[in-house]
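Hi everyone, sorry if this is the wrong subforum. Our group has a chain we'd like a structural model of before ordering constructs, and none of us has done structure prediction before. Sequence below.
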Amino acid sequence: MALTLNPAWLEAVMLAVVRMVTFLVIAPPFSHRAVPARVKMAIALGLGLAVSPRVAEGYVPQSTAGFVTALAQELLVGAVLGFLVLLVYSAISAAGTLIDLFGGFSMAQVYDPQSMVNGAQFARLYAMAATVLMFTSDAYQLIITGLTRSFDALPLGGGVDLAGPAQTITEGVGQMFLASLQIAGPLLAVLFLADVGLGLLTRVAPALNAFAMGFPLKIFLTVTLAGVMFVALPRVVAALTDDAVDHLMGVS
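Answer:
Right subforum, don't worry. Here is the predicted structure as tokens:
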């Protein structure tokens, strides 16, 4: 029994898998440490085989030096696309960090090796909640769809113009800060008004030592209102998913 293997098809699939693996290692929710490396590799291999009819059509086998160059280019493309998705979803953990800072929880920062987030309680809680919502709401399927469509605009071995990704990353950083303020804004406004009220109370009655009551009061307000903010978190994840897909299409 003779087995014929097309070298062009094999090279195209290998390059596609390299882009997929790099993307899955960086982009959430696949970058979470709870997803084993073997699972990421299996997903990347499956996606590479799924897009093989698209990427192998018209692909010409290259020399060893050309293949190594194309391999490095695919690593760069996958890293850029994954970083754009990571940048969008960093708004959720950044919002949690702001809540920890204004609510007094930032003094108990801990590094979470699973989500790779260094923050206090709400930063880690928001990061974990976003990961769960991305899986339960099938948002990850939209991200994978955007990744597979990137092969149409960025063919294998074609490289990437760094001017486009640089502009998209710059816009994404601004949108990340804006989104984090929008998520944590209502609670931050309440905590700011609580500080103003305590300051006025201290001016009126200095003997009361109102700032001594500030820490338990702000913790109570933060815990009470944080539950209300979780109601809007699914809509926030859906909006951020659309932004992530737009960024992927923008680079492509």
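For your construct planning: The mean pLDDT is 79. The helical segments are 7-26, 37-50, 52-56, 64-103, 121-136, 139-153, 163-204, 214-251.
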